[in-house]
Write a structure and sequence with these properties.
The structure is a single chain. The protein has 470 residues and is of the alpha+beta class. It contains 13 helices and 23 strands. The chain folds into 2 domains: 17-335 and 406-467, no CATH class; 341-403, Dna Ligase, domain 1. Helices cover 30% and strands 23% of the residues. The strands form 6 sheets. The protein has a 5-stranded mixed beta sheet with strand order 3-23-22-19-18. The chain has a 5-stranded mixed beta sheet with strand order 13-5-4-20-21. It has a 4-stranded parallel beta sheet with strand order 7-6-11-12. The longest helix is centred in the N-terminal third of the chain and has 25 residues, at 76-100. The radius of gyration is 22 Å and the shape is globular. The model is unreliable at 55-60 (pLDDT under 50). This is Circularly permuted type 2 ATP-grasp protein.
Length: 470
């Protein structure tokens, strides 16, 4: 019996009900046809330019993200439960960010220590007291979910700064429909292709007060950014301009875009660069990516930034353990989605436990991202554990620890054929006048046998995610 939950089959090897029709189809496919289709997918993705930049990779800066043709399938009732939990969680997170930049009730109530906010690298004192449109800070959230144990979902982390990956969700669906149209004729699969329209509607809904026909742009750091394909893709799909900082300027407390027809006022900026680089007059003075004076326009309420400046304080790993308490505090509800049990190494008792069990735990930097700056105890050498122990002792408040979850697996094509590989799921939650999402998300898969690291930057792949309609 496997020690992890298999998405497609139960412990006895019986195919789960929601996979049965797909499995029947799969059994009828010849290996030659599947291999041809996989090669076609790779070729098409290369032609389109769906790549991911891997920083520090001596072998090259651009890689194709491997795409697997076996979908991850979720039945309607499971998605309904996830949807409700995601709406609840993102609502509370938005309320939390608004609170810490205004009345700070959650600090006064003693639920979160003040130092966890004010000493957080993502806290922006410049945002204190600023009124943002509709009180929404995280307009686009990518919430990472994993399934573990007997099949229960957990939130692994909340991505509220500049979450990426939605373009791969959309392109994966398009590819599956192109390769295997017969599957979509025989399965009631909830659509995702309307995401760009939903995103544009969401962004327009949070335009500054008094703007009836807002101009929306996507702001990119430029073509050398790891997610540049996605920036260009979303701008094209929404029918809006893709701009860099040099394409925008501030005049008379408004933001304008340079066009061949002259300056055009910009009302909503879907920005895909970090806070530090947005305005060299307010943050990093050496930034050539931002717009001088942008913060002053933002403070005046004459432009909307999505996501808001300072939102990152809510997705920092040191704040993650408090999200269930946020839900209880702001919504007077019990959390519908569970956190992963977490030890905060700044607490002496949690540090002692972590140091005594390093070979069993996953230890993460609180400001880290992309699975860098972390230790996966069971997969580490004794030397790696000893080295990490010294880092942890030297700066315990910079780390949290979690149990090594037995992530669920899904059948995946590998060199040896079909084999189980571990997966996660990132749904994309849009907050504006309402909270909405397309049914599904980006399923990432760890392609190396036994690996729990699904990140594209470290060799992970992706799958299409099917939400079955009833």
């Amino acid at each position: 019996m496997s020690t992890y939950f298999n998405e497609m089959t139960g412990d006895t090897g019986t195919v789960r009900d929601h996979y049965r029709s797909f499995d029947d189809w799969l059994q009828r496919q010849s290996p030659q046809r599947i291999e041809r289709k996989r090669a076609e997918a790779d070729l098409t993705f290369r032609r389109v330019g769906i790549t991911f930049a891997v920083y520090g990779d001596g072998a090259g800066t651009e890689r194709l993200i491997p795409f697997d043709t076996i979908p991850r399938i979720i039945p309607a009732h499971e998605w309904a439960a996830l949807h409700a939990g995601l709406v609840q969680r993102v609502q509370a997170l938005n309320m939390f960010v608004h609170d810490i930049y205004h009345d700070q009730n959650i600090i006064h109530a003693g639920i979160i220590p003040a130092r966890q906010i004010y000493q957080n690298a993502q806290y922006r004192p410049e945002m204190q007291g600023i009124k943002v449109a509709s009180d929404i800070y995280a307009h686009i959230a990518g919430v990472d979910l994993v399934r573990a144990g007997a099949g229960e979902f957990y939130v692994l982390e909340d991505n509220l700064r500049v979450p990426s990956g939605v373009s791969y969700m959309l392109e994966n669906r398009k590819m599956m429909m192109r390769l295997f149209p017969e599957l979509f004729a025989h399965h009631r699969i909830a659509p995702v292709e309307h995401y760009p329209d939903m995103l544009l509607d969401n962004l327009r809904s949070v335009a500054p007060a008094g703007v009836n026909d807002p101009t929306v742009v996507v702001m990119t750091p430029g073509m050398h950014n790891s997610a540049y394909f996605e920036h260009a893709f979303l701008a094209q799909q929404m029918g809006v301009e893709l701009v860099e900082g040099k394409d925008l300027f501030v005049n008379a407390n408004h933001v304008y875009m340079r066009t061949i027809r002259g300056p055009q006022r910009v009302d909503v900026i879907y920005r895909r660069l970090d806070d530090d680089f947005l305005d060299p007059l307010a943050f990093r003075t050496d930034s050539t990516l931002g717009v001088p004076g942008l913060l002053s326009v933002y403070r005046a309420g004459r432009v909307t930034l999505a996501n808001a400046i300072g939102t990152g304080v809510a997705d920092d790993k040191s704040i993650y353990p408090y999200v269930p308490d946020m839900i209880r505090f702001y919504l007077s509800q019990e959390p519908l989605l569970n956190n992963v049990p977490t030890w905060q190494c700044r607490k002496p008792e949690d540090l002692s436990y972590t140091l005594a069990h390093l070979d069993q735990l996953v230890v993460k930097e609180v400001h880290g991202a992309g699975d860098y700056g972390m230790l996966i105890g069971p997969a580490s050498t004794r030397q790696q554990i000893d080295d990490f122990r010294q880092r942890l002792i030297a700066r315990p408040d910079g780390y949290i620890a979690q149990p090594t979850l037995a992530l669920s697996s899904c059948p995946t094509y590998v060199e040896q054929g079909i084999a189980p590989r571990h997966i996660d799921l990132r749904p994309f939650v849009l907050s504006g006048k309402t909270i909405a999402m397309v049914p599904g998300g980006l399923t990432r898969v760890a392609l190396r046998e036994g690996s729990l690291v699904v990140n594209s930057s470290q060799g992970g792949g992706t799958k299409d995610t099917w939400i079955l309609e009833e």
